[in-house]
Request: fold
Amino acid sequence: MPDQFVLETRLVQTSYNWLGLALDLPSTGNPTYCLMRKGFTMKFHVPDMSCAHCTAAITDKITALDPDANVTTELDGHTVEVVTTSSEASVVDAIKAAGYEATPI
Reply:
């Protein structure tokens, strides 16, 4: 029976959100690791964000900037958390383009 490759992926979160990929080659018995940057985690206070329309407008502008961005909004705390490869200033500009002021926290 020929050697088979076993591929396992693991998401390892740090402040920079790294994606770790482990590739195990049974013939050697030693796993090989490759790390790729997924994006930076940023959090913003958006005081005027108060409804689902607000969150949708903000999410639309951020994902227009970076289609691979992961956007999480929290209405009670008026916060937006973004995992993106875009700069913090670009994300603030995107939130402003949606019609809201944003302060990094």
